[in-house]
Amino acid sequence: MSRKEKILEILRNKKETSVKELSNIFGVSEMTIYRDVRELEQEGYVKRKHGAVLLNDKEETEALMVDTCPICEKPITRAYPYRITIEDTKVVETCCEHCGFLLHSRYEDKKVSAITYDFITENPISALNAWYVVGSSAVPCCSPSVIPFASKEDAQKFSKGFGGQVMNFIDAYNTIVNNMNINLKSCCHPSETVFRIDQLKKKS
Questions:
Q1: Is residue 204 helix, strand or coil?
Q2: What is the pLDDT of residue 51?
Q3: What is the pLDDT of residues 155-188, one digit of tens each?
Q4: Start-to-end Cα distance in the chain
Q5: Of 125, 177, 179, 164, nearest to 148 (Cα)?
Q6: Are 11 and 55 a contacting pair, CB within 8 Å?
Q7: 3-state SS assignment for residue 160
Q8: Residue 115 — left, alpha, or beta (φ > 0 → left; ψ -120 to 50 → alpha)?
């Protein structure tokens, strides 16, 4: 029986588990389990919700609530959002790395671990070991964008095409946190434009 099949068997017995728990059960890294869970999710066998791994009941009709980012309050739509584990107990996800760094600033005095995903391969990587392109013209979520890569070489190639600076974790963190002296929502949502249809018609 493969490890993925064993994961499904565990879920059939207990309905819910976590990547950390599975990592301990199988004696492999959390990143290895993430890859298994990702494949099972893509195949439709499991789903993730609030940091837990659950068996995907295909007959379930109840709609799942979409989580919102604790920083900018945008819906978290990425299949694999930025994920922080605080003191091995609390798991928090954000919509992107930009907001992930801002969330880190709330826990500077806590022991944390964080997982992000390579922009090209979508493979999980330790956020601490990743390389980031900060402030490029590519803005998939919040601005200034923070785009993660497993290798510095890939980050440099991306930067040549889309601009931005290549940084390690702490430099990217300092850049985002030190420059965010504005309303957080303004970095993530376009400003509202107030208008009147009748006045627009007069100008046309």
A1: coil
A2: 73
A3: 999 999 999 999 999 999 999 998 875 444 445 5
A4: 69
A5: 125
A6: yes
A7: helix
A8: beta
